[in-house]
Write a structure and sequence with these properties.
This protein is mainly alpha-helical. The chain has 3 helices and no strands. It has a domain of 58 residues. Helix 1 runs antiparallel to helix 2.
């Protein structure tokens, strides 16, 4: 496998990880917002798609950037060097 293939594989993994984390976080945030607004503050709750989609997209992008940045030093070396230093 080439270095580009490894980077692509890792990027895909981080994108999927960010998507799952974003969806779980969005679901938890929506549930908490619903409970606080309707029960705690006795206000009406309106569900809007745009803020949820922006939050999930931000989670995906930030997770991919952070993941690639964290693995970049290991990707810039030869595999044997990385394995010997561990």
């Amino acid at each position: 496998m080439t270095r580009g293939g490894v980077i692509g594989m890792l990027a895909t993994e981080y994108l999927l990880l960010g998507a799952v984390a974003g969806l779980i976080g969005a679901a938890g945030g929506l549930l908490l917002a619903y409970i606080v607004l309707t029960r705690g503050m006795e206000l009406s709750w309106i569900w809007r798609l745009q803020p949820v989609a922006v939050a999930v997209a931000a989670s995906v992008v930030l997770t991919a950037i952070t993941g690639i940045a964290a693995t970049w030093p290991a990707l810039s070396k030869r595999p044997l060097e990385v394995l010997r230093s561990e």
